[in-house]
Structure formats: structure tokens, C-alpha cells
Design a protein that fits this description.
By secondary structure, the chain is an alpha/beta fold. It has eleven helices and twelve strands. The chain starts with a strand and ends in a 9-residue tail after the last helix. The chain binds 2-keto-D-gluconic acid.
Length: 313
């Protein structure tokens, strides 16, 4: 029997590409010199899309694929996939929750430590030979601080659990109170920021959370406050953040996500109070292997007529 045609939106590690090639006729969207020509020639036969969180699948694309039945996303966030279109057209959507939670939470804590303790700055201080001329400036403690977490899903909860080991006093913002957890619920983001010395953003992306972290929230966090974002760039009003960082209305930020990735606003690079990462929360070999496997397992389940492992739609 012919292998089903699979449109792959962006590169995966070689081990995933090799495994996909075994079971599917793989069409490499990101490598196509002429994407229109690729869709014109093969769109009619494509039955599945494999995409990544940041690449998603638009309604415009899905409309071109009349036989499309499943979109398997390498990532937990499906905000770049038009779920409304998928739902309305009977297209199933899957994601990769759980397998990446620990690594994203680890990076959130890492970014908090890196910004508060100025670890990259200390590294440069040693390399540049400044240490021999005098001691580095003093930095900010993490242990025992008041931390606000915006979004208390799997990743936010994992961050809160990690910060318990730092004796931090954790409170959270979410649309509704989460039952069965000990952390304080603060239903207002400005109030949470005012209460917090550090604010960690783990909200899902999408229209409902767009620009939630705005100038009011940043001003409430205040000049000694540190922001960490491992969610989506869209959750933060980025011009307001750049302004608050440049004018020191907040102390620092540790950022894994941005608007317009990977071509981020150049102003971030000239700030000395940010620690930047290339959207790498889930970027460990271990987690990416598990994510790739889950993408394939969902596709395989679909084509075998079995229940999807991690359905979103
Ligand atoms: C990935 C992500 O960086 O899970 C998500 O929503 O954004 C990430 O884990 C991305 O999907 C991998 O390309």
C-alpha cells in the first residue's frame, strides 16, 4: 500500500526525519523552493501535517489540503494552529504535553537564577579579566523570595514545585482558582505583580492571553522586580517590556520567547539587564526525542484507526 503523504512544516532532528521517512511520503514544506508549486502538485493527496509549536498550521494552508485529517504538533502550545478551522472541518489535532514540562520548568528556574545572580555577567567578568582589578558588584538573592506565576498549568505547577526547594513564597494568577494546591491564588495580575519580587510567565499563548503582561503589570512588579517568560512572546507587551527594561522600571528579565521569533527586536541585544535564550525550553536531547516519538505515535494511532494519545481537537 502507498505510504500516506505527510507535509512536514519545519525541520526535526535527523532521527525524527529518518523515522518519518520510513512510514510516510514526506513533503518538506520549509525546504521547498516554491511552496505554492509544492501545494499545487501534492496538496490534493496530503493526509497529515507534522508541525512545530511556533510554526503551527494556518486555515489558509489547511484549506489547500482537502484530504487533511490530522495535524500532529511537536510542542504543547497549539496557538499557531487554527483550531477553529480544524474543529469545523473534522481535522484532528494533537500536541506533546507532559514530556516537556520538566525541561521548560527547569529553564524557567535557570533563567531566574541567571538574571538574579547575573550568571552570564559573572562569566564575562571572569573571562574579560575584570576580576583581577576588583570584585564583581553584588547581585540579587533568589532563595526565600516572593514569586508570582502567571498561568498554573503543568509547566507553571512544575516551576512552583521547584521553587519550593528555594523556600520561595509562591502565588499564582489564572482565570480560575486551581483546586488542591497550596499556593495563594491572586485573581488580578497587577496585584500579583505588586506582591511579587519575581514574576514567571507560563501562560498558554493565543488571543486570550495576548499582551496580558503590559506596562501596568511591569510597573507593579517595580524597579527591583525580575520577569521570566517561558510561554509565548505574545503574552507580553514587548514594546512596554523593552521600555521598562531600558528605563530600569523593572530590574531585569530572563526571556526564552519573543514576538517575531527568530528575528527578535534588536534592542534586546543592547540591554545589559536581560538574559536571552533562543526558545529552548524543551530543547534537550531527551525531551526532543520524546516529543518526536509522541508526534509519530499520534500519527500512527490515527492511521491505525486507534485512539489518539494526546488529542487537542
Ligand atoms: C518548542 C514549544 O520549542 O511546546 C511548545 O509549545 O513552543 C516548544 O516546546 C517547539 O514547539 C519546538 O519547535
Amino acid at each position: 500500500m502507498d505510504k500516506p503523504s505527510l507535509l512536514v512544516m519545519g525541520a526535526y532532528p535527523d532521527w525524527d526525519m529518518a523515522a518519518l521517512e520510513q512510514d510516510y511520503r514526506v513533503l518538506r514544506y520549509w525546504e521547498a523552493p516554491d511552496r505554492e508549486a509544492l501545494l499545487a502538485a501534492h496538496g490534493g493527496g496530503i493526509r497529515a501535517i507534522a508541525t512545530r509549536g511556533e510554526l503551527g498550521a494556518s486555515a489558509d494552508l489547511m484549506r489547500r489540503l482537502p484530504k487533511l485529517a490530522i495535524v500532529s504538533c511537536y510542542g504543547v502550545g497549539t496557538d499557531a494552529i487554527d483550531l477553529g478551522y480544524a474543529r469545523a472541518h473534522g481535522i484532528r489535532v494533537t500536541n506533546t504535553p507532559d514530556v516537556l514540562t520538566a525541561d521548560v520548568a527547569d529553564l524557567a528556574v535557570g533563567l531566574l537564577l541567571a538574571t538574579a545572580r547575573q550568571i552570564p555577567g559573572g562569566d564575562a567578568y571572569v573571562r574579560d579579566g575584570r576580576w583581577a582589578k576588583g570584585n564583581m558588584q553584588l547581585v540579587t538573592r533568589v532563595t526565600g523570595k516572593k514569586v508570582g506565576i502567571a498561568g498554573i498549568g503543568r509547566i507553571g505547577s512544575a516551576v512552583a514545585r521547584r521553587l519550593a526547594a528555594f523556600d520561595c513564597d509562591v502565588a499564582y494568577f489564572a482565570r480560575s482558582r486551581r483546586e488542591g494546591v497550596a499556593w495563594e491564588y491572586v485573581p488580578d495580575l497587577v496585584a500579583l505583580a505588586r506582591r511579587s519580587e519575581f514574576l514567571i510567565v507560563t501562560l498558554a499563548g493565543g488571543d486570550g492571553t495576548k499582551n496580558l503582561i503590559d506596562a501596568h503589570v511591569l510597573d507593579a512588579l517595580g524597579p527591583d522586580g525580575i520577569l521570566v517568560n517561558v510561554s509565548r512572546g505574545s503574552t507580553v507587551d514587548e514594546p512596554a517590556l523593552l521600555d521598562a527594561l531600558a528605563s530600569r522600571r523593572i530590574k531585569a528579565a530572563g526571556l526564552d520567547v519573543f514576538w517575531n521569533e527568530p528575528n527578535i527586536d534588536q534592542r534586546f541585544g543592547s540591554l545589559d539587564n536581560v538574559v536571552l535564550q533562543p526558545h529552548h525550553g524543551s530543547g534537550t536531547i531527551e525531551t526532543r526525542r520524546a516529543m518526536g516519538q509522541l508526534v509519530r505515535d499520534n500519527l500512527a494511532a490515527h492511521f491505525a484507526g486507534a485512539a489518539l494519545l494526546t488529542p487537542v481537537v
